[in-house]
């Protein structure tokens, strides 16, 4: 069991993760901790905002996502976001001190915050790690099935040649926390026998993300159609090979 209780709550538009100077290797050989998963679900600085401030933040981020989708990163200005959100520009700067920070929060909003909400809604914390992995995988599938998310990916990928820092932001905001969370699950010595939890986590996540991108962005549904259930079934069989037997 994960043994995490019900104390970790997800909030939309909250971001997370560990500091960038820490390597994923610190997770190896350790059990999934309550603090680790809570860190995946929340960000302390944002969670301390008042309800009205959170609502205003949400309003700004939703407007920013629309602007980035419509105008691209370079074409989006703080003035454009302010006009779309119906606020003055100073209100945006009270929450985000740069367009880069706003873009980071937009990425969180449309990617990991959705996944965090799915995990929290499924109440996985008192259930098995296998259930947590299934919930995580299905959340990624559903996110990638959303055409708006696909459009956001295309916008971001199209901008990375001129703005390489966007790729770094995306990796920090999505890939890194996902790998850390799944690595932590595989590091639970009571449930799994895995000599390299991070490698298995990367295999698990990469298989899902590659499938989603190939099917949704590269016309795979037309050229190489393949059911999500078949992929997930085989992935879970691989995971089950590493699980310890329980009575």
Tags for this model:
single chain, 247 residues, mainly alpha, 0% strand
- Counting DSSP H or I runs of 4 or more residues, the number of helices is 13
Order of helices and strands: HHHHHHHHHHHHH
pLDDT averaged residue by residue: 80
Strand tally is 0
Largest sheet: none
How many angstroms separate the termini? 13 Å
Low-confidence stretches: 1-33
β-strand percent reads under 5%
Class by alpha and beta content: mainly alpha
What gyration radius follows from the Cα positions, in whole Å?
19 Å
**What is the global morphology?**
globular
The residue fraction in helices comes out at 55-70%
Question: How is this structure best described in words?
Answer:
- This protein has 13 helices and no strands.
- It is mostly helical.
- Helix 8 runs antiparallel to helix 13.
- The longest helix has 25 residues.
- The radius of gyration is 19 Å and the shape is globular.
- The N terminus is likely disordered.
